[in-house]
């Protein structure tokens, strides 16, 4: 990292990390468990699932599992990696209950949980499980109300979390979501090419400036889907992304691309 990068993008000081979103769809849980164990052995830094009730691709009524009960199992099934939801839907659980669930998984894992959260968007989940879908703005407002409640509950719980649980907020809305990131998050997760991500970083930096927060405190994460390091690695790295998360879906969970990203991470961090 050059001096100018350190000044312009202080979050570039974070080391490169690799995440894997193991999409909990179209596979039996035994296959999912084997995949998270294999990913840990390969050297992934973070394993994610997602918080939906139905598949997002393929057969709409296909095999699928719930998010947070799975995370509790991952806490026992893994030893080294961090893990979490990419991301929890704020609408589906009372914020104080969600805080307690996260605290419990934090303890089961001995401090390896990343608390990923967003405002929610998949209407079928809401309709089928009886939640009010409302509007995008209303869901974001609800997230803004929930985050302080979660923080307050963590401070009241006995025992308290093992550490300050890292909060990851996903979403690119510039007026509300990125403002919430500046106020509450340790990690921001977004999507897009380098130009898009760089713009979002600049907006987030301005929100941090407004409230007097150091933008270098917020690790920058991006979803890279099924792209290779040659496709996206350098361009996203150059704009400050440091956590790169690929996705893999059942039933096969091919981890060949994960191996490429882990090797690339090791090369970059060795420089």
Automatic annotation (TrEMBL):
Organism lineage reads as: Bacteria, Bacillati, Actinomycetota, Actinomycetes, Propionibacteriales
Spell out the molecular function terms from Gene Ontology.
alkanesulfonate monooxygenase activity
Q: Does the keyword Flavoprotein apply?
A: yes
Give the NCBIfam families listed for this entry. Answer: F420_MSMEG_2906
Family annotation (PANTHER family): ALKANESULFONATE MONOOXYGENASE (PTHR42847), CONSERVED PROTEIN (PTHR42847:SF8)
Keyword tRNA-binding tagged: no
The UniProt entry, under InterPro entries, shows: F420_MSMEG2906, Luciferase-like_dom, Luciferase-like_sf, SsuD_RutA_monooxygenase
Q: Which SUPFAM superfamilies match?
A: Bacterial luciferase-like (SSF51679)
Provide the Luciferase-like domain boundaries: 19-223
Q: Name one GO biological process term.
A: alkanesulfonate catabolic process
Q: Which UniProt keywords apply?
A: Flavoprotein, FMN, Monooxygenase, Oxidoreductase
Q: What is this protein called?
A: Putative F420-dependent oxidoreductase
């Amino acid at each position: 990292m050059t001096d100018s990068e350190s000044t312009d993008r202080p979050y570039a000081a974070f080391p490169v990390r690799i995440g894997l979103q193991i999409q909990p769809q179209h596979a039996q849980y035994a296959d999912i468990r084997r995949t998270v164990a294999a990913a840990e052995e390969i050297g992934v830094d973070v394993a994610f699932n997602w918080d939906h009730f139905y598949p997002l691709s393929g057969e709409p009524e296909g095999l699928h599992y719930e998010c947070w009960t799975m995370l509790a199992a991952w806490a026992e099934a893994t030893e080294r990696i961090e893990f979490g939801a990419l991301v929890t839907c704020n609408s589906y659980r009372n914020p104080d209950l969600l805080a307690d669930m996260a605290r419990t998984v934090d303890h089961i894992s001995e401090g390896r949980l990343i608390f990923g959260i967003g405002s929610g968007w998949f209407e079928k989940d809401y309709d089928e499980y009886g939640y009010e879908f409302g509007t995008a703005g209303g869901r974001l407002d609800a997230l803004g109300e929930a985050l302080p409640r979660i923080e307050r509950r963590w401070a009241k719980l006995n025992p308290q979390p093992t550490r300050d649980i890292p909060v990851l907020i996903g979403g690119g809305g510039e007026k509300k979501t990125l403002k919430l990131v500046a106020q509450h998050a340790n990690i921001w997760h977004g999507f897009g090419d380098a130009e898009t991500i760089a713009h979002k970083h600049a907006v987030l930096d301005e929100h941090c400036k407004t409230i007097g927060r150091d933008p270098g405190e917020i690790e920058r994460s991006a979803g890279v889907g099924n792209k290779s390091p040659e496709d996206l690695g350098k361009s996203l790295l150059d704009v400050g992304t440091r956590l790169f998360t690929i996705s893999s879906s059942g039933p096969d969970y091919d981890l060949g691309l994960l191996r490429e990203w882990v090797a690339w991470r090791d090369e970059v961090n060795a420089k």
